[in-house]
Design goal:
Layout (H helix, E strand, L loop, with lengths): L2 E4 L8 E5 L3 E4 L11 H4 L15 E2 L2 E2 L2 H19 L4 E5 L5 H15 L4 E3 L6 H11 L17 E5 L3 H4 L8 H5 L3 E4 L12 E3 L6 H14 L5 H7 E2 L1 H8 L4 H8 L3 H12 L4 E5 L1 H4 L4 H14 L9 E4 L6 H4 L8 E2 L3 E2 L3 H11 L13 H6 L7 E5 L3 H4 L3 H9 L3 E6 L11 E4 L8 E4 L4 E5 L12 H11 L11 H12 L11 H5 L4 E2 L25 E2 L18 E6 L15 H6 L4 E4 L1 H6 L7 E5 L4 E8 L7 E5 L13 E4 L6 E2 L3 E7 L2
Parallel strand pairs: 6-7, 6-16, 8-9, 8-12, 9-10, 11-22, 12-13, 16-17, 17-18, 23-27, 24-26
Antiparallel strand pairs: 1-2, 2-3, 4-5, 4-18, 14-15, 19-20, 20-21, 23-30, 25-26, 25-30, 28-29
The chain binds ligand MGD (2 copies), iron/sulfur cluster and molybdenum atom (MO).
């Protein structure tokens, strides 16, 4: 019998089945309707990849589980005794199941008593989350099911290359594409932009000016929905004061997008009956990313889209459990249920569920990059679950130095990632199809992933690792359950009454096939596929327009570094590549790093197609093969970040942070392009 499950990779969480072999096949499920991308199709190869870890490693040597666990518990206790509880830090991931994310946050706060925990979602959707909370009072990536998009006549996609990052998603845009209603904002002419009626290609890092310009045009041309603004929003006047200064020709000077194209984009959106505005990392991973998303939300609000049936605003969550991963407390400032760790009522509620005193819970810790940057000087030990920071964190040479400065690094993974290689102890854990758990997809829908195959001998689940360590650290055995359903039951209680309320979601209901989107406060509640239809989540029910202004990238091109570099993804590889670089079909398709360059720009640097280029910034340099792409802007180069060693795009990225979300500026820095002689 094929077992139904979901893909190990991105937030679309396509439905699939696994049958013995193991063989993966697509399955009818609303988000993918029988489709899969190449990564999904080849995902079964992950299950018996030759490099699979099956024994704990201590200093690179195989060890027994007992020895490895004892050793870790002892070292953590020593470091805590010597330097205090914050000497141990924890780094989680948005690919972890809800159960793991929840238990990891609890482990940090209760078993270790440390405030020093954050996770890779900080590098992912944090700017959109911050902007969503500011505007709407709650952060759920898509406040509507993906299938609603099928009725859209127009979609504005900003910094999202879904044709490569979520291929089965594109079918939901079919009507908008056919109606000439797809507008794409991306400095590159991507596979997604190719399908657009209007493609706006701003200089990287100038989206905020562009969003203000489109708002200006919408107001000037009378497309603003005044009735909606007065009923459902506050803050239009202040917002308009800023946008009024951004007339189209001024915006053209800053962004490079012609005034005519700005007007065409607004015309497409404003003549549609049903329209959506969607953002992704291209507009979010900036030092002003939160404000950029706020500016796009302002545009959507001015057009009267959010919370209107058949229209809306949303952000595309990235990782498999990117949504759930940011709700259950692995974030530095957070407790389960999307609660704030510095809110006395939240502390009291969660402490009671955990059976501890509220005063015993630590306060907020540092954001992901700040945490990594402080390693060695601050925390002396780091435990990593579900991230490969040696490749994916910004300014990665510096991050590698910080990792090396630690007294003790522990990594749980199922492959020897570039981060695991550096670890003092590696725990070999089960992966995706070998274990159970729930994931919350990009539409806030909670999905059950049942165990489909038997794990190889020698591996344990992340939940078992946390359990074993917590007992060794003196915790009562029942406080860290190993059964995922037991963990979920506790998570439900901890989330009850919070913004992300899972109290009414049970394994039983999920097994019965119910489509449950949070909030779902009790077992008779049908879940909430569409938020905001009647009101937004602020106390007065109204959305906030935030008056934000263009700041531009933190680092502008100059004589030494005359080009803008941006980074992102290709279809065949996932994130740091720890998983997909181990799949032969995917590495055959894209074996190594490359840099997309306009042929004229390449020529000026004495480079041609296939040559190895050195791309350098103030942080470092990366080696990549030149791909001449006539559709590129001549002032911009693009690098995927999936490759290790001296091909790491993050050797050059700028770790400057957004002041609100603490998101690093992955999407733009100043670089120089040279031939390697
Ligand atoms: N194949 C594949 N799919 C994935 C992933 C993967 O690693 N590989 N990862 C998953 C995850 S975690 C995430 S977060 C999502 C990310 O999904 P996306 O956000 O779609 O992916 P990116 O390639 O990071 O960025 C999207 C686009 O932003 C553009 N961009 C760069 N700078 C700017 C700018 O200043 N303004 C604008 N408007 N656009 C800009 C880039 O050219 C790029 O085409 O994908 C998910 N799906
Ligand atoms: N330059 C640049 N850098 C970027 C980005 C960019 O656009 N440009 N994007 C950023 C974004 S959006 C993201 S999401 C990050 C992602 O970057 P990473 O956090 O490095 O993500 P992955 O490569 O998915 O790493 C996950 C690791 O955990 C392991 N793993 C997977 N599932 C589990 C599990 O259940 N348990 C355990 N213990 N391990 C598991 C995998 O094998 C892998 O080694 O990268 C960020 N970095
Ligand atoms: S789109 Fe995402 S979830 Fe679907 S098959 Fe591809 S990687 Fe998996
Ligand atoms: Mo992401």
């Amino acid at each position: 019998m094929p077992t139904p499950t979901h893909c190990p990779y991105c937030a679309l969480q396509c439905g699939m089945t696994i049958k013995p072999g193991p063989v993966v096949e697509p399955r009818e499920f609303p988000v993918n309707r029988g489709g899969l991308c190449q990564k999904g199709w080849t995902s079964a190869a992950l299950l018996n990849t030759p490099g699979r870890l099956t024994t704990p490693l201590v200093k690179g040597e195989p060890a027994s589980w007992e020895d490895a666990l004892d050793h870790v518990a002892q070292r953590l206790q020593e470091l805590r005794a010597e330097h205090g509880p914050d000497a141990v830090a924890v780094f989680g991931g948005g690919g972890l199941t809800n159960e793991k994310a929840y238990l990891l946050g609890k482990f940090a706060r209760v078993a270790l008593g440390t405030s020093q925990i954050d996770y890779n979602g900080r590098f992912c959707m944090s700017s959109a989350a911050a902007a969503g909370i500011r505007a709407f009072g709650v952060d759920r990536g898509l406040p509507f099911p993906v299938t609603d998009l099928a009725n859209a006549d127009a979609v504005l996609l900003i910094g999202a290359n879904v044709a490569e990052t979520m291929p089965p998603f594109v079918q939901h845009l079919r009507r908008a594409i056919d109606a000439g209603g797809l507008v794409v904002v991306d400095p590159r002419r991507t596979a997604t932009a190719e399908q657009a009626a209007v493609h706006l290609a701003p200089t990287p890092g100038t989206d905020l000016a562009l969003a203000l310009g489109l708002l200006h045009v919408a107001v000037a041309e009378g497309h603003v929905d005044k009735d909606y603004l007065s009923r459902r929003t506050v803050g239009f006047e202040e917002t308009w004061e800023v946008a009024a200064r951004w007339w189209p020709e001024q915006v053209e000077r800053v962004t490079g997008v012609s005034a005519a194209d700005q007007r065409r984009a607004v015309a497409v959106l404003s003549r549609a009956d049903n329209a959506y505005v969607l953002t992704a990392r291209g507009t979010e991973q900036h030092a002003s990313g939160s404000d950029m998303v706020s500016a796009w939300i302002n545009l959507a609000l001015a057009l009267g889209l959010p919370g209107r049936s058949g229209s809306g605003f949303g952000c595309l969550t990235g990782q498999g459990n990117g949504q759930g991963g940011r709700e259950h407390g692995q974030k530095a400032d957070q407790l389960p249920g999307y609660r704030k760790i510095d809110d006395p009522a939240a502390r009291e509620h969660v402490a009671e569920v955990w059976g501890v005193e509220p005063e015993s819970l630590p306060g907020p810790g540092k954001s992901a990059y700040e945490l990594l940057d402080s390693l060695g000087a601050g925390p002396r030990a780091l435990m990593v679950f579900g991230s490969n920071v040696a490749v994916s964190a910004p300014r990665s040479a510096h991050v590698a130095e910080r990792l090396a400065a630690l007294d003790f690094l522990v990594v749980a993974d199922f492959v020897l990632s570039e981060t695991a290689v550096l670890a003092d102890v590696v725990f070999p854990v089960t992966q995706w199809a070998e274990e159970g758990g729930t994931m919350t997809n990009l539409e806030g829908r909670v999905l059950l992933r049942g165990r489909a195959v038997t794990p190889p001998p020698g591996v344990r689940t992340d939940l078992e690792v946390l359990h074993e360590l917590s007992v060794r650290l003196g915790q009562p055995a029942e406080r860290f359950p190993v059964d995922e359903e037991a963990v979920f039951s506790e998570l439900r209680k901890a989330s009850a009454g919070g913004a992300a309320d899972y109290a009414g979601i049970s394994y039983e209901r999920l097994r019965a096939g119910e489509a449950l989107h949070w909030p779902c406060p009790d077992e008779t509640h049908p879940g909430t596929p569409r938020l905001f239809l009647d009101r937004f989540a602020h106390a007065d029910g109204k959305a906030r327009m935030i008056a934000v202004d263009h700041r531009g990238p933190a680092e502008l091109p100059d004589d030494d570094y005359p080009l803008s570099a941006t980074t992102g993804r290709v279809l065949q590889h996932y994130q740091s590549g720890a998983q997909t670089r181990r799949i032969p079909e995917l590495t055959a398709a894209v074996p190594e790093a490359f840099v997309e360059v306009h042929p004229d720009t390449a020529g000026r640097a004495g480079l041609g197609e296939g040559d190895v280029a050195r791309v350098s910034s103030r942080r470092g340099e990366v080696l990549a093969k030149v791909r001449c792409v006539p559709g590129m802007r001549t002032d911009t180069v693009f690098l995927p970040f999936h490759f290790p060693g001296d091909q790491r795009a993050n050797l050059i990225t700028n770790p400057v942070l957004d002041p609100i979300s603490r998101m690093p500026e992955f999407k733009v820095c100043a670089v120089r392009l040279e031939a390697v002689t």
